[in-house]
């Protein structure tokens, strides 16, 4: 435990500042998103399949944008500028949610929000990698993810409190939620400094060039294939909120599911990231995959609020064990000059996988009920676990 604490203390101040930025933006986003599924289904009359479409398209949009922003950050050597643009667009998009009167308007708002996420994601991750040494990256990515998840935990709690204070005025809550997003942009602009070694590299051209795809190397593509397959086993967390509603949680307290998930995520992400620098990545990823299988089984076969919260907690635990680790593995496998592009491509493929998973979950939920979506995801996760041990060399994940 002492080594974990010392590893976290060694994380550069710029990474900590980016953690605060992520925390404030997720506070804003999750206040909205924890109420959005119920708002769409009960107020706007959308079906669960439509929710899966909206969430899946939103995440795929973010992933496509990450390809271009990651490449651009490599070319112009200005990762911070792109990160500010991304967070700024996400902040502005928050004002579309209170005025949404249709599913199409919500989709537009989610589209703008996710474009912002896509613009900032790869440059921000590459910026963290630029700020840190290889032996610090697990701790750095884990700490940022943990602080991000603190915001994601506080958001649903704020949503419940505001639902009680405003007597369920969801549109007013959406408007209030925009405030932390603008504070996040201010913190980013004032408190984060870009390392000097990031510099323009060559003339502009297509973001995806065959020679550079080859230059990323086999280790990078194995990690990317693994993370993409993992994304197929995990659909949008919006389905957890609907699972809570199907178990009898009122719209006011439906965000409690997200509080449980994100609380576990926030508590474990930073220590798990630090451990990733010191133990076998294969074992840590295996633990995350087995945890997700357990969550899917409980959410698919269990009944009642207790099973719901245990499943949500395990879902958060699997995220904590894997998300920062995948980022650190990607940073370590990619050449430094292509790091932004590497994160962008990885996120693109993961986004397509998430879109597929969310569409499939919505269709299964509509046709066969909630258990089918979770049990199918658990089956995919078991296949990914087998692939981890059969197809990824042990030397790459020691």
Mean pLDDT metric: 84
CATH topology: Growth Hormone, Chain: A
Major beta sheet, specifics? none
Number of structurally distinct domains: 1
The top-level CATH class is Mainly Alpha
Approximate strand percentage: under 5%
Overview of the structural elements:
The protein is mostly helical and 398 residues long. It has one domain: MFS general substrate transporter like domains (Growth Hormone, Chain: A). 79% of the residues lie in helices and 0% in strands. It has 17 helices and no strands. It has helices at 2-9, 13-33, 36-43, 48-76, 79-93, 103-131, 137-165, 170-176, 178-191, 210-215, 217-232, 238-246, 256-276, 281-301, 304-333, 339-368, 370-391. Helix 11 (217-232) runs antiparallel to helix 15. It is globular, with a radius of gyration of 20 Å. The two termini are 21 Å apart.
Topology:
Layout lengths: L1 H8 L3 H21 L2 H8 L4 H29 L2 H15 L9 H29 L5 H29 L4 H7 L1 H14 L18 H6 L1 H16 L5 H9 L9 H21 L4 H21 L2 H30 L5 H30 L1 H22 L7
Helix pairs in contact: 1-13, 2-7, 2-9, 4-6, 4-16, 5-6, 5-9, 6-16, 7-13, 7-15, 11-15, 11-16, 11-17, 13-15, 14-15, 14-17, 16-17
List its salient traits.
single chain; 398 residues; mainly alpha; Growth Hormone, Chain: A
Question: What's the quick description here?
Answer:
The protein has 398 residues and is an all-alpha fold.
């Amino acid at each position: 435990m002492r080594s974990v604490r010392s590893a976290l203390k060694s994380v550069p101040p710029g990474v900590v500042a980016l953690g605060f930025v992520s925390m404030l933006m997720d506070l804003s986003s999750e206040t909205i998103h924890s109420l959005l599924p119920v708002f769409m289904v009960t107020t706007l009359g959308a079906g669960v399949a439509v929710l899966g479409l909206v969430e899946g398209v939103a995440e795929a949009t973010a992933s496509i944008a990450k390809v271009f922003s990651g490449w651009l950050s490599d070319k112009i050597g200005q990762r911070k500028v792109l990160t500010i643009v991304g967070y700024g667009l996400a902040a502005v998009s928050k004002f579309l949610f209170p005025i949404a009167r249709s599913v199409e308007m919500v989709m537009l708002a989610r589209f703008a929000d996710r474009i912002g996420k896509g613009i900032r994601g790869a440059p921000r991750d590459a910026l963290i990698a630029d700020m840190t040494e290889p032996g610090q990256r697990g701790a750095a990515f884990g700490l940022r993810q943990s602080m991000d998840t603190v915001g994601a935990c506080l958001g649903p709690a704020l949503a419940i409190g505001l639902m009680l204070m405003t007597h369920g005025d969801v549109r007013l809550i959406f408007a209030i939620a925009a405030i932390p997003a603008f504070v996040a942009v201010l913190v980013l602009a004032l408190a984060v400094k870009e390392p000097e070694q990031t510099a323009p590299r060559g003339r502009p051209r297509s973001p995806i060039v065959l020679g550079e795809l080859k230059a990323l190397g086999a280790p990078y593509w194995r990690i990317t294939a693994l993370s993409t397959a993992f994304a197929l086993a995990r659909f949008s967390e919006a389905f957890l909120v609907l699972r809570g509603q199907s178990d009898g949680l009122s719209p006011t307290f439906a965000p409690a599911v997200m509080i449980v998930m994100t609380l576990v995520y926030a508590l474990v992400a930073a220590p798990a990231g630090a451990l990733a620098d010191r133990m076998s990545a294969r074992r840590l990823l295996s633990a995350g995959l087995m945890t997700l299988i357990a969550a899917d089984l409980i959410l698919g076969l269990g009944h009642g609020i207790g099973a719901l919260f245990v499943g949500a907690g395990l879902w958060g635990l699997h995220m904590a064990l894997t998300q920062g680790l995948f980022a650190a593995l990607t940073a370590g496998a990619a050449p430094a000059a292509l790091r932004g592009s590497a994160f962008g491509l990885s996120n693109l493929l993961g986004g397509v996988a998430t879109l597929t998973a969310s569409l499939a979950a919505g269709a299964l939920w509509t046709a066969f009920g909630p258990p089918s979506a979770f049990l199918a995801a658990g089956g995919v996760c078991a296949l990914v676990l087998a692939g981890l041990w059969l197809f990824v060399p042990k030397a790459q994940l020691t």
